[in-house]
């Protein structure tokens, strides 16, 4: 891929998270210092880039933006770039929350909804899908409704749901094709990744999308920046040319690479953390962490993603990757199968 990528998201002084905020460290530590970039500051940056003829990306990636004013400034830039460059590949990661709670101001939600039609790809997690579509994922019908709303109402061509925990969702595990169902092991938890693209040549009918999926084991513990890494890898591997060589269409091909590499980096990080002294790998305990904040800090330091140490994984291609590609598989019957 030739050309510039403009990335607009968080910046921290310690850690490898890929500047809508300038913090000392990510929020997983429980405390941080720094500031949020205001809409005025963002607009000043964008204006200077344009005056200096530096605002010419062929791809745009937006991630964590903490409030509606700043997000609106980013939206206006995305609108401008989309108008000037109709072929712009824009990956919008609607970073809003996880595990059932928002970690941004609630007023960003309607702004994100208004930005969805500008995107080429979106990469929400399950909670962000629920938030964007006002749909709780509790059944096959609700999942289909959420995807339909994203594709039809918000006109998003490519939706990659980065992770849906299968634990507590037996209806979802039962719906999966046998080829991608995880082993029946109650001691291991799994995450489901879904890629859904509107492509009449691939879909089961003109009113539905082509759906692909794959599962990965859930690693224990909390790691920050996983969604940022996944989204960046999806954008890096996305080739919009439908005639590109390979067994998969553009979105599931890119998501397969992103899922594989993200999981491999997490495994390397987890292995590193497991070798640290006991005081630096104590399990999460909200009460004890509140009494002794350094308990959490020590734990999070050991769980910083090993990105630099995993450059071999990140740079590898499909023919030389150091780990087996977790290729997404076609989910035939997604729109028709009933339990």
Automatic annotation (TrEMBL):
GO terms for molecular function: ATP binding; pyridoxal kinase activity. This is pyridoxal kinase. It comes from the Eukaryota. Its EC number is 2.7.1.35. Keywords: ATP-binding, Kinase, Nucleotide-binding, Transferase. The lineage of its organism: Eukaryota, Fungi, Dikarya, Basidiomycota, Agaricomycotina. GO terms for biological process: pyridoxal 5'-phosphate salvage. InterPro entries: PM/HMP-P_kinase-1, PyrdxlKinase, Ribokinase-like. It is an enzyme of class 2 (transferase). GO terms for cellular component: cytosol. The keyword Protein biosynthesis does not apply. Residues 62-161 form the Pyridoxamine kinase/Phosphomethylpyrimidine kinase domain. It comes from Gymnopus androsaceus JB14. The keyword Ligase does not apply. Belongs to the pyridoxine kinase family. Gene3D superfamilies: 3.40.1190.20. PANTHER family: PYRIDOXAL KINASE. Signal peptide: none annotated.
């Amino acid at each position: 891929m030739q050309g510039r990528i403009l990335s607009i998201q968080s910046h921290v002084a310690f850690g490898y998270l890929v500047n809508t905020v300038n913090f000392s460290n990510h929020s997983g530590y429980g405390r941080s210092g720094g500031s949020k970039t205001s809409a005025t500051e963002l607009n000043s940056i964008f204006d200077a880039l344009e005056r200096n003829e530096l605002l010419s990306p062929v791809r745009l990636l937006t991630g964590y933006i903490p409030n509606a004013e700043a997000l609106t400034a980013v939206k206006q830039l995305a609108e401008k770039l989309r108008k000037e460059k109709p072929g712009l590949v824009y990956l919008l990661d609607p970073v809003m929350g996880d595990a059932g709670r928002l970690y941004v101001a609630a007023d960003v939600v309607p702004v994100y909804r208004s930005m969805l039609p500008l995107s080429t790809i979106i990469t929400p997690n399950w909670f962000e899908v629920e938030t964007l579509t006002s749909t709780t994922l509790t059944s096959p019908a609700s999942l289909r409704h959420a995807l339909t709303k994203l594709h039809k109402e918000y006109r998003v061509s490519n939706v990659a749901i980065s992770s849906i925990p299968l634990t507590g969702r037996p209806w979802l595990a039962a719906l999966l094709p046998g080829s991608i169902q995880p082993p029946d092991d109650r001691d291991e938890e799994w995450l489901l990744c879904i890629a859904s693209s509107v492509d009449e040549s691939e879909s089961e009918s003109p009113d539905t999308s082509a759906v692909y999926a794959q599962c990965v084991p859930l690693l224990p513990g909390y790691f920050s920046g996983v969604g940022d890494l996944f989204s960046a890898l999806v954008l890096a591997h996305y080739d919009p040319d439908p005639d590109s060589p390979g067994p998969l269409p553009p979105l599931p091909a890119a998501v397969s690479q992103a899922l594989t590499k993200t999981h491999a980096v997490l495994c390397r990080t987890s292995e590193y953390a497991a070798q640290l002294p006991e005081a630096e790998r104590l399990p999460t305990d909200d009460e004890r962490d509140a009494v002794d904040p350094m308990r959490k800090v020590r734990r999070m330091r050991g769980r910083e993603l090993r990105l630099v140490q995993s450059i071999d994984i990140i740079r590898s291609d499909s023919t030389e990757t150091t780990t087996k590609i977790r290729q997404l598989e076609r989910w035939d019957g997604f729109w028709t199968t009933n339990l």
